[in-house]
Each structure stands twice: as C-alpha cells, then as structure tokens.
Amino acid sequence: MYLEHKFCPAADPVISVTDGSVIEGYASLFGAEDQGGDIVAPGAYTASLKTLAERKGSVKMLWQHDPTQPIGVWDEVREDGRGLYVKGRILTDVEKGREAMALVAAGAIDGLSIGYKTRKAVREPSGRRLLSQLDLWEVSLVTFPMLPEARVGAKGDPDCEVWRHLADVLKTASRELRGG
Predict the structure, then answer these.
(1) What are phi and psi of 176, to 5 degrees?
(2) CB of 88 within 8 A of CB of 26?
(3) Residue 137 burial (CB count, 10 A)
(4) How far does the signal peptide extend, from start to end residue (predicted)?
C-alpha cells in the first residue's frame, strides 16, 4: 500500500493558536492545484470520514508525516464548502508536542499536509490529477506543505484585524511557553 503526502515549499504564513495548544486550519482546499499538479474535488474525503466515524477511528496528528511522532489529536476534521477543515490540540505533555508548539508559536512552522491513499482519480490531458475519493490517514504539521495555502490559521481570508489578533495570540503563547 502506498501512502501519499502533499509537501512542498510554502509562502505567506498564517497562524492561529488558542489556549496555548489548540490549532486550526485547512489541510486541503477544494479546486486548488497543488505544486504536484493534483486538485482535490469537493466530497473527496466524505467516504473516508464516514468510515472512520463508523469505526470510531480518527485522523492522526503527526509531526512531519512521521508515524512514530504523534504530537496531538484532531478534535474536528470535516469537509465544508472550502475544503478539509481541521481543529485540534497539540499535546504539550509529550516532548515533540512541546517542541512543535514552540515552533508554531514562533511562526517557524505553519504548514498542514495530508497523508492519504488515492481511491479514485482522473488524469487530465494537461497532466493534472483530479482526486475524487481519498482515504485520509493523517494530517501533519509540516515545514513545507505541497499546497501552499494549507496552513494552520484563521478561518477565512486574513485581514488587518486578524493579523493583529494573531500577533497578540503569538505573544501570549510565547510568554506561556517561557513560563511567565
């Protein structure tokens, strides 16, 4: 079995940290072409998320796609009109979780990347692949997401108020991580 990852250099970091360890963002955006030429269609995760729910399973939160380094839990994983939205908690009781939280709070890490198996896809004449059914296994915090817009961040498009709020959140998180 071949597990695919979406991973590439990123741009325009956007970070949302709440209560020192809660993160959220879009791990996948429908209709957006990633740097590997793949486009995820709306509904691509529906069957996978349904199967996971029926089995009482979960999408794993990993560090850099390393299955030996879980760093937290995704409390919410769902499709909406925009893409695959995730919200979860980095567990700071584990060493790698503390490191990840410090890097997110500092703005050094802000990418989200999915690990999945392709169930249905169509290759277009242009060479792009339209992914219509995926088995989602994990969503990782990564340095370089394949889809540059896949970020830990605020819902919707950022504006000046969001950027100011994010700066305040980061300062608070940084102080908490330093113990004061």
Answers:
(1) -65, -40
(2) no
(3) 20
(4) none
Token pair for residue 113?
């990347």
Amino acid at 136: L
CATH 3.30.565 fits 4-177, yes or no: no
pLDDT tens track, the chain, 180 positions: 445 655 433 343 334 444 458 999 999 999 999 999 999 999 999 999 999 999 999 999 999 999 999 999 999 999 999 999 999 999 999 999 999 999 998 889 999 999 999 999 999 999 999 999 999 999 999 999 989 888 886 333 343 334 334 444 555 555 566 665
Report the C-alpha gap between 155 and 172 in whole angstroms: 20
- Are 7 and 150 contacting, i.e. CB atoms less than 8 angstroms apart? no
Instruction: Enter the DSSP assignment of 107.
Output: T
**What are the residue ranges spanned by the domains of the chain?**
4-177
CA contacts within 13 A on the Cβ side of 154: 16
**Which amino acid belongs to residue 144?**
F
DSSP assignment letter at 117: E
